[in-house]
Design goal:
The chain is α+β, with helices and mostly antiparallel strands. The chain has helices at 3-14, 32-45, and strands at residues 21-24, 51-55, 63-65, 72-74, 84-87, 93-101, 110-113. The protein starts with a helix and ends with a strand.
């Protein structure tokens, strides 16, 4: 990744509130030793301020249809696998974490639960 792209990504993560959640929904990004190491690297990169969550298996998107408008969009509470790697701000890591999202994009909150 170019330095410019890294700077842009760092600027994005700097906008998140301390203790906020940075969720990677790419399939298997948090799997195995590589996932554990990536979680630790992201923790360092973000200054140990954020919860870093990375899917440990295939991500299965689901969609909803708004009955009033007919528009469709991602339904986040159904979007992810049940297994996430969770790297906490203090660097502790938990595998197979359940992530419960509230519903549609823009709806808080995200609830994390250690398995």
């Amino acid at each position: 990744m170019s330095l410019k792209k890294m700077e842009m990504f760092k600027a994005l993560t700097n906008k998140l509130t301390d203790g906020g959640n940075l969720i990677f929904g790419s399939c298997s990004i948090g799997a195995g030793t590589a996932g554990l190491n990536f979680g630790k690297s992201m923790n360092t990169f973000t200054g140990g301020r954020l919860n870093i969550l990375m899917a440990q298996q295939t991500v299965q998107p689901r969609y909803y249809a708004d009955p009033n408008t007919g528009k469709t969009g991602p339904w986040l509470s159904r979007m992810f696998s049940e297994k996430f790697l969770w790297t906490q701000p203090n660097g502790s890591q938990y595998q197979n974490t359940s992530v419960s999202l509230s519903g549609v994009i823009g709806s808080p909150p995200v609830t994390l639960r250690k398995q």
